[in-house]
Design goal:
There is one protein chain. By secondary structure, the protein is of the alpha/beta class. It folds into 2 domains: 166 residues, Aspartate Aminotransferase, domain 1 (Alpha-Beta Complex); 260 residues, Aspartate Aminotransferase, domain 2 (3-Layer(aba) Sandwich), CATH 3.40.640.10. It contains 13 helices and 15 strands. Strand 11 and strand 12 form a beta hairpin. 46% of the residues are buried.
Length: 444
Amino acid sequence: MSEVRMQLDAQQIIERSKRYTLFDWQAQSKTSPMAVASAQGVHFTTVDGRRFLDFNSQLMGVNIGHGDKRVLDAIARQAETLPYISPFMAYETRALLGEKLATLWPGDLEKTFFTLGGAECNENAIRIAKAYTGRQKVLARYRSYHGATYATINLTGDPRRWANENPPMPGVVHVLDPYHGTQRGSDDAETALALLRETIELEGPETIAAFIIEPVVGTNGILIPPDGYLQGVRDLCTEFGIVMIADEVMAGFGRTGEWFSVNHFEVVPDLMSTAKGLTSSYLPLGALAISPEIAAHFDEHVFWGGLTYNSHPMSCAAALAAIDVLEEDDLVGNSKRLGEMMSRHHQELAAKHPSVGLTRNIGLFGILELVKSRDTMEPLSPFNMLNDTMAEVNRALLERGLFTMVRFNAIMTNPPLCITEEQLAEGFEIIDEVLSIADAATEG
């Protein structure tokens, strides 16, 4: 007879988790996790009964909201018939998901390679680009995040790569994003593309396999490219035979008010990596969309890649169901509609609070950048640092029941796509209250 599992209280869960497990991206002595009991819709609830409005969709991935029974039931049905089979096998859910994705991918992208998640998707995109071109260098931008495997953390441009690039992966060349921070602002497309062309020519285009780019940058600032920039990147990649890889892991599956952020710019990449919103993060899965030309290369050439859990049946079932929910509930359309409302909330906060220096959003992908002074536009917290003021802002948000990502000088606004107008307003009311803390730290 099996033992009945003991019910732990919040403190016991936290203590045992900290003792027996290692937490991501932090010194373990400083970690302070919540003990979460359940989640539903746009909220999650802790073991001790506190309820939070999830204004960041956890890690920008729970696009359909938490606990949707349609997805849970699909996972359960798959578990009853075929919970796992080798990725060398074909089965119905894999076939149906591949077929469905082919109808959603931009342009003529059709074939899909399944992975465990976003990092592995990008890792395999690089591997495919190198195999296809016979070249070794990869361009990536400084204001980027592409994952935490050895290759993808080196491709990542933000400071998270620093501890992991000793020694660095050979062949990674970082280039500047058009955006240069609150004080310098953003280049126009012509300037940014001229600098990119110069880098390509100086590096030697015949040595560059790929340029990996977040069309709309995620954790590094919700950076929306200037008009013409992404189209110009596509043209440069075509001109020099460089594989254009669009990293849509955060921006994809409705987050920006389109199925994929490249759709806003009518650009079709050669490879496109997705994850997170693909299953609404209910189960791990990544999907790499591949152009017909690159896919054809592997008709006669071996693709040297794969992992045990690629195309996992239960994950594929979750993805099919999550896509159905996006369609049935018109959540991509809701993201577009409420994105306009989010923009108005941003503008109202900027008009009221001197600490709000810049705001950006595209669909329900948004950010507030806080500054010390609108005259100098000096960020309220320095690059790669969460100072005492921003830490206090984060604490105050949590005390009022709002969970989101507070990073450097920024407050992210990335709720699930199922959020209502009233719930969106509730979140911004809390931010409105808390910005008094930031205002007190401004100059003048």
